[in-house]
Write a structure and sequence with these properties.
heterodimer; A: about 280 residues; mainly alpha; MetI-like fold; about 75% helix; disordered N terminus; B: about 260 residues; extended
């Protein structure tokens, strides 16, 4: 006991050993990963790479403002907006029936001793699997496939958005509908009304606002996705940017990037305003 | 019907009309003929294209190649999340206003800039800077994710209670000790949660960054589709789907485990 008293006051960091151990473990684990990902920071300072990058970045100022290019830029911007809007429309058309089938609150067999309970459950599970499958492949992969398969430009982007966003919207729509109070719809079903009527008069009045707000938010995401899909040839701003990258034309890239930023901010503002109006 | 209700109804009808007009205008501008798209000839082309993917190439050497690319994709996503965890943490300190107004403004602008450029655009840029390959993909992910994590970390820092640090200061602790023992334990779990969530997103992103030449499964898919080697592309697609579904399952499980621990 006297030995403990003679010790100098505790100045050791009480957490030091644990933190050092974690850091060392992390570094040991990251090392092989770095090898696998060919992590060579030196390549950044390779004179050849640095020269290409330097002249490319120097080209960023001033942004390209030639009238012909601005015309191309305007057309690409409109195309991006059109791809996002048309893709959302098709996704909506795909999502509504899927969500309608997948929603448990609208199950007729759940309200009483009716036949077809198993059929209903199997159908719902099948629809949910389709939704997962549609969502699990990223939209840009679908876009690449459609570009290759059908030799399409912008239409590939529209179809790719329709497929992934269709699956995503259906999932979220079904979740929103199921989180709403199910009793009005159930009462309607028990009184003998059809599933469509139960949806329109039992569930939609409760959930409409949230559904619309989520759809507007997704439209905003679709604009960003439409730009990115252009990099695999699906039209719009992304395709224009990809071409400018390949021609190492820094001025054009910076103009396109500015328009992209403006577009994202505009969509953000519009979607915020729309959601506020709806709220 | 009251005036207010009538105004609401007119507003509602007007917005529906505007949406319908925008959709019609979009299809017209893109000149997409939906009936043509699903016409007999296109259906045949599509069916032929899909049929070419079967059977996928399952020969052992190719599977090894795909496995290596999948590992590479995972490595890119991990490094592309681990580096931002450190860099984002370092930038979050000035961004949370701990070092004065000017550093705060500078750090916030930098984070916003990093975040607002999509990963794929960073990847195109990094392919120019570092050459083709997974290193470019890692850098691209790291740059975008630093912007996202830096901002999230800064918000956690701002929301953390100042009381523990004040107590340590009153005891005479230095700035580093105050932060490391006063604030870090408060926000550590939340920051780790944000990082895991971004990692989950980065796995998805890493599979597609290869489309612009940044390595991994994406580069393989792009390569084989360009050479019209559909059987090989099919194998890569299956690998991608497995990776994404496993990622979904794992993150769902991790989220459940974390929330169970919290309660």
């Amino acid at each position: 006991m006297s030995a403990a008293l003679r010790l100098p006051p505790q100045r050791r960091d009480p957490l030091a050993r644990r933190r050092v151990a974690w850091s060392v473990t992390a570094l040991v684990l990251l090392w092989p990963l770095g090898r696998l990902a060919q992590f060579h920071p030196a390549t950044l300072f390779d004179p050849a790479n640095a020269h290409v990058m330097g002249s490319f970045l120097r080209g960023f100022l001033p942004p390209a403002l030639a009238p012909e290019f601005l015309q191309l830029l305007l057309a690409a911007t409109l195309q991006t907006l059109a791809i996002a809007t048309a893709g959302m429309a098709l996704a909506f058309a795909l999502a509504v029936p899927l969500a309608f089938w997948a929603t448990r609150s609208l199950s007729v067999s759940a309200i009483g001793p009716a036949g077809g309970r198993w059929r209903g459950r199997v159908l719902r599970q099948a629809v949910r699997s389709v939704m997962v499958l549609l969502r699990s492949i990223p939209e840009i992969v679908w876009a690449l496939m459609f570009v290759r398969a059908l030799d399409l430009g912008a239409a590939a982007g529209v179809l790719a958005l329709a497929v992934t966003y269709g699956g995503m919207l259906a999932k979220v729509y079904a979740e929103i509908l199921e989180s709403a109070d199910a009793r009005p719809a159930r009462a309607l079903l028990q009184a003998g009304s059809g599933r469509v009527a139960a949806l329109c008069f039992g569930l939609l009045p409760l959930a409409a606002q949230e559904l619309v707000s989520y759809t507007v938010y997704r439209w905003e995401c679709a604009i960003r996705a439409a730009v990115v899909m252009g990099f695999v040839g699906a039209g719009g701003l992304g395709q224009l940017m990809d071409q400018s990258f390949k021609m190492l034309s820094g001025g054009e890239v910076s103009s396109i990037a500015l328009v992209f930023l403006a577009l994202v901010m505009l969509a953000d503002a519009i979607s915020l305003a729309l959601r506020k109006v709806l709220a | 019907m009251t005036t207010a209700r009538r105004a609401r109804r007119i507003g509602g009808l007007a917005s529906v009309a505007a949406v319908v007009a925008a959709v019609v205008a979009s299809f017209a501008y893109l000149a997409i003929d939906l009936r043509g798209l699903f016409g007999a000839e296109e259906r045949h082309a599509m069916a032929r294209f899909v049929a070419e993917f079967f059977p996928p190439d399952l020969s052992a050497p190719f599977l090894r190649q795909v496995g290596f690319a999948a590992l590479q994709t995972l490595a890119v996503s991990l490094l592309g999340t681990a580096i931002p965890m450190v860099l984002g943490g370092l930038l979050a300190l000035p961004a949370a206003g701990r070092l004065g107004m000017l550093p705060k403004w500078l750090a916030r602008s930098l984070l916003n800039g990093l975040r607002s450029v999509p990963e794929l655009v960073w990847a195109s840029l990094m392919v120019l800077a570092a050459g083709l390959g997974p290193f470019a993909g890692t850098l691209a992910l790291a740059l975008h994710t630093t912007g996202v994590l830096g901002r999230l970390f800064a918000e956690s820092l701002e929301n953390a209670s100042p009381a523990p640090e004040a107590a340590l200061r009153d005891l005479g602790a230095g700035a580093v000790a105050r932060f490391v023992h006063g604030t870090l334990p408060l926000i550590g779990a939340q920051c780790l949660g944000y990082t895991l969530y971004r990692w989950e997103m980065n796995i998805r992103m890493a599979t597609i960054l290869g489309f612009v030449g940044a390595g991994g499964l994406g580069q393989m898919l792009y390569f084989h589709l360009s050479l019209f080697q559909q059987a090989q592309a099919a194998t890569v697609l299956v690998a991608m789907t497995i990776l994404v579904l496993a990622d979904d399952a794992l993150s769902g499980w991790a989220r459940k485990a974390l929330s169970a621990e919290a309660h």
